[in-house]
Design goal:
The chain is 34% helix and 24% strand. It has 363 residues and is of the alpha/beta class. The longest helix is centred in the C-terminal third of the chain and has 21 residues.
Length: 363
């Protein structure tokens, strides 16, 4: 946790995407970070974005991405650019010595992401992706229930299901960058599926599955971009997971974990119903003859700041450790980003191969 004597990490916002509004607010709320600059390809667009989001007059306005890379008063960059631009600008940011908070999906494929990671490692900068729910205090509590030796209440998790779906409008389906193959060509799989895949990996302690297979029924648009899909993941010891993501279905953002001793359910894992607290339920040791003798128990977890600000706070903490104490970048975050991207790639490959099973062994 930051103290009042810490110098805030100066973060530049590289791109004016809609999600940058949420993260801009998060940077303001994080106690150890501050917005130092904003950049767009147009100076006027950057000025308009800064004004609309209440940026302080001290925030520098850059009319090009190159300019913000050269700004010596920027420690780190939040990059919400289209996925197809990530490899170029994240590599250039790392080469400029800027730490990187990169929107998800992190790249179009794992080969591109490996270039980003190599640049970060070479230049000693921290990389983290923008999966906000991973930083909510509830997620830490879920981890305790799943893996803590003193709790481990649901036993060995045998089956995981996670989904993230949002019903978009016709304008989105025609014009949003997430349906354009040259911008965010991974579509719903990269945008929404990223969260569902990360949840399945999280519930399996980030162990990669051995086999991934897309489910029948994938929906593509005319350009071949995925609008809706599902997939199954399986591990050698019999654990399984299913994921679902869609731009065409009603809102759903759930995790369910079925274990040997109980079940765990989260209804709102991507965006909690409330900013100040979040809940989940467990149901333990239910038998066959009277399954509801033990009713589900609701658990509530409070947070002082919203999950996106928790993410920025952790990112800024890691950057501060490197900047002020000479620490090494934390490899956990790029590692789980890479694993998530590997599963995204495998599902996409399976879709293209008519739901063929894809092995992740050795990847």
């Amino acid at each position: 946790m930051a103290t009042v004597t810490d110098t805030p990490i100066r973060i530049g916002v590289m791109g004016c995407a809609e999600i940058a509004r949420t993260v801009s607010r998060a940077i303001d709320l994080a106690p150890n970070a501050t917005i130092a600059a904003v950049a767009s390809r147009s100076l006027e667009k950057a000025k308009t974005f800064a004004t609309a989001n209440g940026y302080k007059q001290s925030v520098k306005i850059h009319g090009s991405y190159e300019s913000i890379l050269e700004d010596p008063e920027v420690d780190a960059l939040y990059i919400p650019l289209p996925t197809s631009l990530h490899v170029e600008w994240a590599v250039r940011a790392a080469e400029s010595g800027k730490h990187i908070l990169l929107e998800k999906p992190v790249a179009m494929n794992v080969a591109e992401f490996d270039k980003i990671v190599a640049a970060c490692e070479k230049n000693g900068v921290q990389m983290m992706d923008g999966t906000m729910w991973a930083h909510h205090p509830r997620t830490a509590k879920l981890k305790e229930f799943l893996f803590d030796s003193d709790l481990f209440l649901i036993g060995h998790a045998l089956q995981i299901h996670s989904c993230f779906s949002l019903a978009v409008d016709e304008d989105f389906l025609k014009n949003d960058i997430r349906v354009k193959p040259n911008l965010d060509g991974l579509g719903a799989l990269g945008d929404l599926g990223w969260y569902a895949i990360r949840a399945a990996l999280f519930a399996n302690n980030f162990e990669l599955p051995k086999i991934v297979a897309a489910s029948p029924g994938t929906v593509l648009n005319e350009a071949g971009v995925i609008l809706s899909c599902g997939a199954s993941l399986s591990w050698e010891d019999g654990r399984t997971a299913s994921i679902y993501c869609s731009f065409l279905a009603n809102v759903g953002m759930e995790i369910s974990a079925v274990g040997t001793n109980g079940t765990l359910c989260v209804q709102d894992f991507v965006i909690p119903f409330e900013e100040t607290h979040a809940t989940f339920t467990t149901c333990l040791k239910s038998g066959f003859n009277d399954p509801w003798v033990s009713r589900p128990t609701e658990h509530s977890v409070k947070t002082e700041i919203p999950q996106e600000a928790c993410m920025v706070r952790e990112f800024a903490r890691l950057v501060g450790e490197i900047k002020n104490k000479g620490a090494e970048p934390d490899g956990f975050w790029p590692n789980i980003s890479r694993k998530t991207q590997l599963v995204v790639d495998a599902i996409k490959e399976s879709v293209e191969k008519n739901c063929q099973q894809i092995s992740l062994s050795g990847r």
